[in-house]
Amino acid sequence: MGGVMGRSNSLRRGGPESKLEAKMVEAMQRRASEGTSVKSFNSIIMKFPKIDESLRKCKSIFQQFDEDSNGAIDQEELRHCFQKLEISFNEEEICDLFSACDIDENMGMKFNEFIVLLCLVYLLKEPAGAQANSRMGLADIEATFETLVDAFVFLDKNKDGYVSKNEMVHAINETTAGERSSGRIAMRRFEEMDWDKNGMVTFKEFLFAFTRWVGIDDVEEEDEE
Ligand SMILES: [Ca+2]
Ligand SMILES: [Ca+2]
Ligand SMILES: [Ca+2]
């Protein structure tokens, strides 16, 4: 565990990464104003198996867009993917998203990177209209993305678009009051998420941590059932 963590230190402050981050924070704050249906940290944990199952189903979407089947979606394939899903991001936005999610910097989206990318798209994309219940035409996975956004909104108590260490401790302690170990668990969970160790977890960091917790970051070798 932890193999990929150190590499995010290469984040460029003030570069495209932080521009995208600003957009994510803004979108998250907008979403947070609608509230969250999550009542406790445990209820998030309880949803792990269902989220896991749903994200794994995403594998066929990934394979569909990995046109040359080399196990990664490159920028050209991603453009095709966005066209197909009618995601109208401009070239700069696509590049920013791509480099933000290409955490192993091999110029391709592996499965877990692709899932994080899609979830960020989900967050950034305004609903097409009140009547539209799907933003990307992927109703099943979008429900899961909504669950993840909802979980983040729950953790982000002060609604600034970041989860701080205190917020993480608070979220875990309010469900498992009195257990001394829960504080330590909260710390460990937090440190797993906070790659660049700046005391704040972005939604992107949260998502990557999530793909590790449910084990889809090492899904490559696995045979489909
Ligand atoms: Ca490919
Ligand atoms: Ca990559
Ligand atoms: Ca916060």
**Would you report the number of β strands?**
2
- Run of helices and strands: HHHHHHHHEHHEH
Please report which band the strand proportion falls in: under 5%, 5-15%, 15-25%, 25-35%, 35-45% or over 45%.
under 5%
The hetero molecules present are:
calcium ion
Give the overall shape: globular
* Mean pLDDT across all amino acids: 83
Spatial strand sequence of the major β-sheet: 1-2
- Through-space gap between termini: 25 Å
Q: Uncertain spans, ≥5 residues at pLDDT below 50?
A: 1-12, 221-225
Rg on CA atoms, Å: 17 Å
Largest sheet descriptor: 2 strands, antiparallel
Number of helical elements = 11
How many domains make up the coordinates? 1
The proportion of residues forming helix, as a percent range, comes to 55-70%
Based on secondary structure, the structural category is: mainly alpha
Written description of the protein model:
The protein has eleven helices and two strands; from the N terminus they run H-H-H-H-H-H-H-H-E-H-H-E-H. It is mostly helical. The protein has one domain (12-215). Strands 1-2 form a two-stranded antiparallel sheet. Helix 3 (48-57) runs antiparallel to helix 8 (139-155), helix 6 packs across helix 7 and helix 9 (165-173) runs antiparallel to helix 10 (180-193). It is globular. The two termini are 25 Å apart. The structure holds calcium ion (3 copies). One calcium ion binds next to loops. Residues 66, 68, 70, 72-74, 77 line the site of one calcium ion.
